[in-house]
Structure formats: structure tokens, C-alpha cells
Automatic annotation (TrEMBL):
Upper classification of the organism: Bacteria, Bacillati, Bacillota, Clostridia, Eubacteriales
The protein's name in its UniProt record: Iron-containing alcohol dehydrogenase
Organism: Feifania hominis
Protein keywords: Oxidoreductase
Chain ranges of the Fe-containing alcohol dehydrogenase-like C-terminal domain: 194-394
Domain Alcohol dehydrogenase iron-type/glycerol dehydrogenase GldA: 10-183
Keyword Acyltransferase: no
InterPro entries referenced in this protein's UniProt entry, alphabetically: ADH_Fe/GldA, ADH_Fe_C, Alcohol_dehydrogenase_Fe
Record GO terms (molecular function): alcohol dehydrogenase (NAD+) activity; metal ion binding
Source species, domain of life: Bacteria
Pfam families named among the record's database cross-references: ADH_Fe_C, Fe-ADH
Amino acid sequence: MIRNFNYFIPTRVVFGPGCLEQLATIAMPGKKAILVTFADLSMSRLGYVERIVGLLKKQNIDVVVFEKVLTNPLTGTVDEGVALMKQEGCDFIIALGGGSPIDTSKAMSVAAANGGRYWDYVPAGTGGRKPVEKSPLPVVAINTTAGTGSEVTPIAVITNPDTNEKVSLRIDELYPRMSFIDPELMLSLPKGLTAFQGLDAFLHAAEGYISRQSQFITDRFALEAVRLVYQNLGECVNNGKNLEARTSVALASTLAGMVIALAGCITEHSMEHPISAHFPRVPHGAGLALIFEQYFTKVVEKGTVNDRLIELAQAMGVKVEGTDEAARAMCFVRAGVEMLRACGIDRISHEAFGIENPDVDQLTEDTFGYSSGNFVRDPYELTRDDVREIFTKSLLEAK
Ligand SMILES: [Fe+2]
């Protein structure tokens, strides 16, 4: 039976190798842009900033460059960017990079149009909960990574370093006006980032498929996205110059972004946010890799969506074996762990990522505190004891 659904993704998606050149011809939503990108200057070093400025010049669009964004972007950076765009008279925002610059740009678009500081508009934790009354300024996303899906979602995730809160703002007006997904820009991504981002895309699709808000269209996108990641991510990690594999994972990431835009994530993502908020050197994908096996083993134990896990495994091309449903659903978990191993991220070094004395009680509290939004989408009840157990097994006992 086909269930009722509500589909809304207003972003123009320009996809494919070489598509960045179309920046010179596709009409932009303003006259002067602020280009928001990473603080490590990597986008300048790769020549992308200069190339984009040159392409937009052909349309007589001026660009002010703001290279200040960190991994796990901060609310202070958002305010600094808004101050610069006001000073320079910019009327739209170009985000260059992955989820961090895109989310920073979305947050800037809210504060620039509505005034005040960004945290005034954050709807949870210590956020000011002010309504976003004026339409945010347009954002054009140029994606150089394949994972977050932020290029097609109405979600911005920003961290407040004073309180260690990592909070999402989700409103329809935050969908980027347009997004360029050019896999050629992804050829030089390092192995680790490729693996973490690819896992993020995989989990957006898998979580959205399990979500109570899944719908006909997102289900199709999710099954294709998990297949594309499962069959191509190892090749992207081990042979980064393979454009066909990069294109497959880029498509998966965008499809998976559309899945979470509509079906949302479940509590696996809620559990990751406190990890990377407390340990800011942990990339989002690394936090997900840490909890993947224990989280989904618990989901199998709950037993309410084992049919969906089996469907995911079958879409991935995994041989589903076993006599009972739980054993068959575990094939999904084992294949996922196998994928982590093939990508070299099955063991996350606490030392390398600055994870010191993880406080599982605090992480549990924070999962239910500022990251509670996904619980309504879980088709099972994840209790405090469950969350504490998953953190304990993933962060303490696994070492
Ligand atoms: Fe994610």
C-alpha cells in the first residue's frame, strides 16, 4: 500500500563532472556574493576560489572571500561572516566546501536577514528561540565533499563552543537556492575524509529508510544511495582519482541528503552530535563510525524494523542468510562493519581524535537534551539505558 506523502525540495541541483563551469551562465540570485569556505585555505590552494571568482566575473558578479570556517562550525564564525557581508554590501552567499561551509552559510543567511546574533534563532538548548520572520538570503552551495547532503537540506548544524552544544536549525527557507555537485572537485579529497563523509551519506540513507517519516520517494532514493556507497566507497578511498567511483558516491550523497530533508535522521545522529560537540576534533563521520555497530545491533535487538534492515542489505547486494529475521537483519550490520574495514575506519583512534575520558552519562544526557529531535522518528523506543549502553560499548569497552 502506498502511504500518503508530502514532498518538497526546492533546490536546483546541477550535477556531474565539469558542471562547475555553468557558474558562468546560470542566473545567480544576487549581484555581490560572500564566498564562505574553510579556514585552512585548502580551497584557495586547490585553485577553486580563484576559479569561482573568475567564472562569476563573466556574469559581472563581485565576490568577497571569507575563509574562516572550521570543521564543526562555530556560532561566532557565523556572526563574523554576517558582519563582513553587511560591511561589503553582499546580497547572497556562496558556500564552497562540505557541510561546514554550507551550514555556516545557511546560518549566516538567517542572521543577515533578521538581525542580531545567530544563536538568538537557535531553537533548542541555550538558543534564543526567536522566530525567523524574514526570509533568509539566498545560498548557492558548491559541494566539494560527498557526505553531508547539506546541499539539498533545510538544516544548519552549528556549535556553541561556550556550552559544547551542537544544535540543528531546520526551516524550509534554509534549502539552498541552487547546488553545484561536481565530482571533479572531489578527486583530491584525502582518504580519511572520503571515508567519513561517505559513511555519513550511507547513514543518512539508511536512517531515513528506517525513519517513521520515510516516504515513497525517499525510500527509492535511500535504497539506491546505500547501494552506490556500499559498492563504490572503498574504491574512492583507495583510488581517489577514479572519477566514476567519485561520481557514484557524490550522487549517493545528494540522494541521501534528499532522504534526510524529507524523512529525517533517527537517533544514531542524535547520539553522534554530543560526541563531536565534546570532542571537536572528531569529524561527524568518525563519531558515526564509532557507534555504528553497537547502535544497529541494538536496533536489531528491538526487532521492529528488521524487515527494513534486510531490504537495505539486499539493495546493497549483500547475501542475506540466516533462519530467523534478527539473524538476517544482522547481515546489514555486518556488511556495514565490513565497509568500515574496507575504508580503514573500523577502528577510530581515541588519541588521534582527542577523545579523552569520555563521560558516557554526560553524553547520554546531551543526546536527550539538545539532540532530542530525532527520537520521534525512531520506530522503536530507545531508552536512556539503551543510549548509555551503546556509548559504553562503543567508547569504553571497544578500546
Ligand atoms: Fe550526518
